[in-house]
Amino acid sequence: MCNRFTKRRTNSATYTCECCGKRTRETGNDESRRDMCLACDLEGEIQNMISDYSHKIGPEQAAQFFAELNTAQANTADADTAAIKAIHQRVMEVAYA
Asked: N- to C-terminal Cα distance for the chain?
């Protein structure tokens, strides 16, 4: 995860993601409240769910999710945001089952 100790933006349609440094804007998923792009916001949520629900997500499955996440992180194109969303959905299904 990234460290975010910078001052908040004001009166701007775009902002810089505090994790990856990419210029981005709010996409309707409320990720701007943490000054993150959608991909970084979802990655953080995935990591938190795997940690919080480790009793439901076994170590092998967690390793698989992290491997898939690392592959998706390797390319920051919008197509990989869809891959990260798919991983997020699968982690939610296991965690909340």
From this structure: 26
Return the DSSP state at 37. Answer: -
How far is 63 from 55, CA to CA, in rounded Å?
14
Flag whether the pTM goes above 0.90: no
Cα angle 88-3-79, degrees, rounded to a multiple of 5: 35
Quickly list H helices, the chain.
Answer: 38-52, 59-73, 78-95
Cβ atoms within 10 Å of 21's Cβ, excluding its own: 12
pLDDT tens sequence across 5-31: 455 555 667 888 888 888 888 887 777
Structure tokens at 6: 């910078």
- Measured at the CA of 93, the angle between CA 91 and CA 94, to 5 degrees, comes to 65
